[in-house]
Design a protein that fits this description.
This protein has 341 residues and is α+β, with helices and mostly antiparallel strands. The protein has two domains: 3-96; 118-338, Bira Bifunctional Protein, Domain 2 (BirA Bifunctional Protein, domain 2, 2-Layer Sandwich). The protein is built from eleven helices and ten strands. A hairpin with a 6-residue loop joins strand 8 (266-275) and strand 9. The longest helix has 39 residues, at 58-96. The radius of gyration is 36 Å and the shape is elongated. Bound molecules: phenylalanine (PHE). Phenylalanine is lined by residues 184, 186, 263, 266, 269, 285-288, 309-311.
């Protein structure tokens, strides 16, 4: 007897002898389907067996083919019967089981809400549009030029260092020193002035990136840039604008203190501190009068135009407004935290 013939006959004997038990053992529909697949699925026992048929000697094929078909049909019949029986049993269980208590209160869906950063961003934009500012936007991946050079950073400024700035890889897989994740929203100043003529007043909220990581610094955070260009703009206008916007944001009279500081793109430059009534001073951003060199870089006449600019940490403002001690909590997406205010 040929090997193929023996294998076929033994296999068929085995399937014939075992299929009933295999199918009847299934307690629910998924296991019944799995058991059925083990017999007649693409990788099933019988399916594999039938592939041997072509190696079986010709004079035995007809006989064995008929037997195989009979087994296949028997399996199908048993499977269909079992499927029906399981469905009937499930229906029966539902009808005789405990009744549905329609008086039970339903499960209330958890309503979503805006993230605190998004909320404060919307509030900021409301305040500034009511003061006559336009809203501007810019890309998170920008050029070295827009982020540093045109803002008057000297070529070797530490902020442009690998330590502070995330650079982007070019198509060749190498770090491209001209393309980066913006480290501040001041890129928006350059972009807006390059495409518009003065006078103008814009604010641009957005995400910025720095290689910074501790309780009050996150490598990804949010800033709001403000820029106003007109004739005869003074530092008093800047202080007034900050005072009004912070007071409207916090809904109470907020004191603003400007502390002399240095940023390459403003002169004079200052840190902005804010204090709510009875609270502590907190540093929330930088500001100053637009440096003439920046106007030159965007083609504005520095003899004619003056302006102020500021950059605020939106996350910082959210921390103050909502009393969040750790900036990371804002980005961990823990619903217990996010639904707590
Ligand atoms: N871009 C500065 C920073 O991120 C803040 C700033 C903006 C300062 C505008 C002055 C004027 O630190």
């Amino acid at each position: 007897m040929s090997d193929a013939l023996k294998a076929f006959e033994d296999g068929l004997d085995e399937v014939e002898a075992s299929y009933r038990e295999v199918l009847s053992g299934a307690a629910d529909e998924p296991s019944l389907r799995a058991a059925n697949a083990k017999l007649v699925g693409p990788e099933g026992r019988l399916t594999k067996l039938l592939k041997l048929m072509k190696s079986v000697p010709g004079d035995r094929r007809k006989d064995l083919g008929q037997r195989s078909n009979a087994v296949k049909n028997a399996i199908k019949e048993l499977f269909d019967g079992q499927l029906e029986a399981l469905a009937a049993a499930a229906r029966e269980a539902e009808l005789t089981g405990p009744a549905l208590d329609v008086t039970l209160p339903g499960r209330r869906p958890l309503p979503g809400r805006l993230h605190p950063i998004t909320r404060i961003k919307h509030e900021l934009m409301d305040v500034f549009t009511s003061l006559g500012f336009d809203i501007a936007d810019g890309p998170e991946i920008d050029t070295h030029e827009n982020c540093f050079d045109k803002l008057g950073f000297p070529p070797d400024h530490p902020a442009t260092d690998m330590q502070d700035t995330f650079f982007v890889k070019g198509a060749d897989g190498n770090v491209d020193p001209r393309t980066l994740l913006r480290t501040h929203t001041s890129t928006i100043q350059i972009r807006e002035m390059s495409r518009r003529e003065p006078p103008l007043a814009v604010v641009g909220p957005g995400v910025v990136y720095r290689r910074d990581d501790d309780a009050t610094h996150s490598p990804m955070f949010h800033q709001l840039e403000g820029l106003l260009v007109d004739e005869n703009v003074s530092m008093a206008d800047l202080q007034g604008a900050l005072q009004v916007f912070l007071s409207r944001l916090f809904g109470e009279v907020v004191e603003v203190r400007l502390r002399p500081s240095y940023f390459p793109f403003v002169e004079p430059g200052a840190e902005v501190d804010a204090r709510r009534p009875g609270g502590e001073w907190m540093e929330i951003g930088g500001c100053g009068m637009v440096h003439p060199v920046v106007f030159e870089h965007v083609g504005y006449d520095p003899e004619k135009w003056t302006g102020f600019a500021f950059g605020m940490g939106i996350d910082r403002m959210a921390m103050v407004k909502y009393g969040v001690p750790n900036i990371k909590a804002l980005f961990e997406n823990d619903v217990r935290f996010l639904s707590s205010f």
